[in-house]
């Protein structure tokens, strides 16, 4: 019994479920100056690019969507390197996300005062293609699906968009509506929103 | 009368002398000719032999770095430089000028794709390491006949063999590394030299006991050079105190030198250290090259 607790404790301590589940940080993640916003513009530009690449890959690997400056669980993995005792300051993370937003790789939650952002490691256009393919494969076109069914339904289990973030799903649906492939219907809640795919969307 | 005879005799003597001279000359000329002919035929034989040798060993010249170096030395001793250009007799015969041309392109590629990280200054051995891996990867993609397995063959410096085999273990586990893609630092230097006429601006700098390749036209001032040389013995990073200790400069001079190194993108600063640490980038693991490459591409296209 005490053995079990000990090993549980050890598991809890072993600082990286991320590593355990296979995300390999590039070696620059262990480079101490990587955690200081570089004062030279060209160096900073490259540093921000590298950080955004790492963030996108990390988020994709773990199917994460929201970057939250107050979410220590994720940030301790990504932005806090205990091995070299360096961490990104919140201002630096914000500066990096700003760069990502400019490139369309992220979007600040307008109400969050730059505390939360959605990370688009896949573009809404690409999600749209993926969901569309799935709908037609299952012959669900011409019937109405709820957002819940797409994001959390049994049929979408195993799909990459299973458990997709509501904001990302919303954006994806907007893409489909704009392209005239789908129409959405108001529901009482976000998850009860409905969507109907038209045959015209079939390829 | 007497005198006249003498004159006649003298003339006859002169004529004889002239004739003798001429015949000597003829003999001399024919000797000379035959020597020349001999030389010519020796040269022809030599050239033919060198041709045969080069043809027979063309593959070795291209694939085996040690062999290539010896061949290069031998040719340099007799005043030909067959590897320097793909144009001309030797280049066409051997197709080896292309070797340096291709290597040059790969060096440019390595230097440019890492420039944003290291400010365009890279250790020669690091370039060699990365180019070698690039060649290995290219080879695995467009693989034709050769399958590796002869890995123990060539590398004289253990450094390169260990890093490349490590890389092989990490990413190319299903692909045997091919020694044909191996190169030496000598090859890299030679290829950089062949880039010079293109106005590439590539320079080889001696900093401390290391050769560094600069892909950005620049002049390092003396203080910058001294610090970069110093950093080689301090694990790639340094602070003002260390500079003061080892070089005995006053603080204003140290600050100026370190600041200009930051501005030139040659160093990164770590402000979470006390005192601030200045780092030379460029010692990152090979498995990350792909991330740097994609990042640079993204950066330049945006």
From TrEMBL, chain A:
The keyword Phosphoprotein does not apply. Gene3D superfamilies: Winged helix' DNA-binding domain. Chain C. Domain 1, Winged helix-like DNA-binding domain superfamily/Winged helix DNA-binding domain. Keywords: Cytoplasm, Protein transport, Transport. It is found in: Cytoplasm. GO terms for cellular component: ESCRT II complex. GO terms for molecular function: protein homodimerization activity; structural molecule activity. The keyword Transport applies. InterPro entries: ESCRT-II_cplx_Vps25-sub (IPR008570), ESCRT-II_cplx_Vps25-sub_N (IPR014041), WH-like_DNA-bd_sf (IPR036388), WH_DNA-bd_sf (IPR036390). GO terms for biological process: macroautophagy; protein transport to vacuole involved in ubiquitin-dependent protein catabolic process via the multivesicular body sorting pathway. Its main location: cytoplasm. Belongs to the VPS25 family. This is Vacuolar protein-sorting-associated protein 25.
UniProtKB/TrEMBL annotation, chain B:
InterPro entries: ESCRT-2_cplx_Snf8, Snf8/Vps36, WH-like_DNA-bd_sf, WH_DNA-bd_sf. It holds the Pfam family EAP30. One of its GO terms (biological process) is protein transport to vacuole involved in ubiquitin-dependent protein catabolic process via the multivesicular body sorting pathway. Residues 139-165 have a biased composition (Low complexity). GO terms for cellular component: ESCRT II complex. Residues 133-166 are annotated as: Disordered. SUPFAM superfamilies: Winged helix' DNA-binding domain. PANTHER family: EAP30 SUBUNIT OF ELL COMPLEX, VACUOLAR-SORTING PROTEIN SNF8. Belongs to the SNF8 family. This is EAP30/Vps36 family-domain-containing protein. It comes from Lobosporangium transversale.
């Amino acid at each position: 019994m005490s053995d079990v607790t000990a090993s549980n404790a050890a598991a809890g301590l072993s600082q990286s479920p991320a590593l355990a589940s296979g995300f390999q940080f590039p070696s620059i993640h262990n480079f101490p100056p990587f955690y200081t916003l570089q004062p030279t513009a060209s160096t900073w530009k490259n540093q921000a690019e590298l950080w955004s690449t790492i963030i996108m890959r990390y988020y994709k690997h773990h199917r994460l969507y929201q970057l939250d400056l107050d979410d220590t669980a994720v940030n301790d993995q990504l932005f806090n390197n205990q091995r070299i005792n360096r961490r990104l300051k919140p201002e630096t993370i914000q500066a990096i996300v700003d760069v990502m937003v400019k490139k369309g790789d992220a979007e600040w939650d307008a109400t969050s005062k730059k505390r939360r952002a959605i990370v688009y490691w896949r573009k809404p256009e690409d999600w749209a293609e993926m969901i569309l393919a799935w709908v037609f494969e299952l012959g669900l076109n011409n019937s109405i699906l709820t957002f819940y069914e797409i994001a959390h339904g049994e049929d979408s289990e195993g799909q990459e968009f299973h458990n997709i973030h509501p904001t990302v799903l919303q954006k994806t649906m907007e893409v489909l509506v704009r392209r005239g492939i789908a129409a959405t219907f108001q529901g009482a809640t976000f998850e009860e929103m409905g969507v109907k795919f038209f045959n015209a969307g079939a390829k | 009368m007497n005198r006249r005879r003498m004159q006649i005799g003298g003339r006859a003597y002169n004529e004889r002398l002239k004739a003798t001279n001429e015949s000597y000359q003829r003999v001399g000329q024919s000797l000379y000719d035959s020597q020349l002919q001999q030389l010519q035929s020796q040269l022809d034989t030599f050239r033919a032999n060198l041709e045969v040798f080069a043809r027979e060993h063309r593959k070795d010249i291209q694939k085996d770095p040690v062999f290539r170096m010896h061949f290069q030395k031998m040719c340099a001793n007799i005043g030909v430089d067959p590897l320097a250009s793909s144009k001309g007799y030797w280049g066409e015969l051997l197709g080896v000028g292309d070797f340096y041309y291709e290597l040059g392109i790969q060096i440019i590629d390595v230097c440019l794709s890492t420039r944003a990280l290291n400010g365009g200054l890279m250790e020669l051995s690091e370039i060699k390491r990365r180019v070698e891996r690039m060649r290995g990867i290219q080879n695995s993609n467009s693989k034709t006949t050769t399958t590796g397995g002869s890995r123990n063959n060539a590398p004289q410096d253990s450094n390169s063999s260990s890093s490349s085999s490590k890389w092989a273990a990490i990413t190319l586990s299903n692909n045997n590394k091919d020694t044909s893609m191996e190169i030496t630092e000598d090859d890299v230097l030679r290829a950089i030299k062949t880039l010079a006429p293109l106005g590439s601006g590539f320079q080889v700098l001696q900093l401390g006991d290391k050769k560094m390749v600069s892909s950005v036209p620049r002049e390092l001032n003396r203080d910058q050079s001294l610090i970069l040389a110093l950093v080689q013995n301090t694990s790639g990073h340094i602070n003002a105190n260390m500079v003061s200790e080892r070089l005995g400069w006053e603080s204003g001079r140290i600050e100026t030198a370190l600041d200009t190194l930051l501005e030139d993108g040659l160093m990164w600063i770590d402000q979470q250290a006390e005192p601030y640490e200045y780092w030379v980038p460029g010692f990152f693991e090979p498995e990350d090259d792909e991330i740097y490459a994609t990042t640079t591409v993204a950066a330049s296209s945006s």
